[in-house]
């Protein structure tokens, strides 16, 4: 490696982490006005996506789907419950387990939210094939990074 190559390694524009960070912020900014129409924050929208996909889930499963811990998911659910979109109920057979389900209002919101994914695809300039390729690439990056982080913990 040349001295010039070594210097370039620390340029901001050469950092994959920064490119991912900047892209994430830009995409979240595109979501913001769309979600404002639903009066949802981006993290709340993600919780709703999980529940629209499969209703009646324990908090632990919602957190796992979103790669978030209980302490992060719980306040999101409390706000969604206060809005009347979800309901949390302790399981009779296991008091430690809380199941989250959509209310009729939460179910009805799904129809309004169906306009969001096409608007995002359009804003990103991606057709369905490009969107799918991007998702696959980002999943591969996520898996590789998690595997690398896990190896570092050994």
Helix and strand arrangement:
Layout lengths: L2 H6 L7 H21 L5 H12 L3 E2 H8 L3 H13 L3 E5 L7 E5 L1 H10 L2 H9 L3 H26 L1
Antiparallel strand pairs: 1-3, 2-3
Helix pairs in contact: 2-7, 4-5
Organism: Kibdelosporangium aridum
Subcellular location: Cytoplasm
Main location: cytoplasm
What does this structure look like?
The chain has 154 residues and is mainly alpha-helical. The chain has 2 domains: 40-109, Orthogonal Bundle (Arc Repressor Mutant, subunit A); 115-154. It has helices at 3-8, 16-36, 42-53, 59-66, 70-82, 104-113, 116-124, 128-153; strands at 57-58, 86-90, 98-102. A hairpin with a 7-residue loop joins strand 2 (86-90) and strand 3. Helix 4 (59-66) packs across helix 5.
Characteristic key phrases:
154 residues; mainly alpha; Arc Repressor Mutant, subunit A; 2 domains; 8% strand; transcription; MarR/SlyA-like
Question: Summed up, what is this model?
Answer:
Helices cover 68% and strands 8% of the residues. It is mainly α.
Unreliable spans are none
**Relative strand content:** 5-15%
* SSE string, helices as H and strands as E: HHHEHHEEHHH
**How would you classify the helix and strand content by structural class?**
mainly alpha
Give the rounded overall mean pLDDT.
Answer: 92
Quick one: CATH class of the largest domain? Mainly Alpha
Overall number of structural domains:
2
How much is the radius of gyration in Å? 19 Å
N→C terminal distance:
30 Å
The counted number of beta strands is: 3
Overall CATH architecture of the largest domain: Orthogonal Bundle
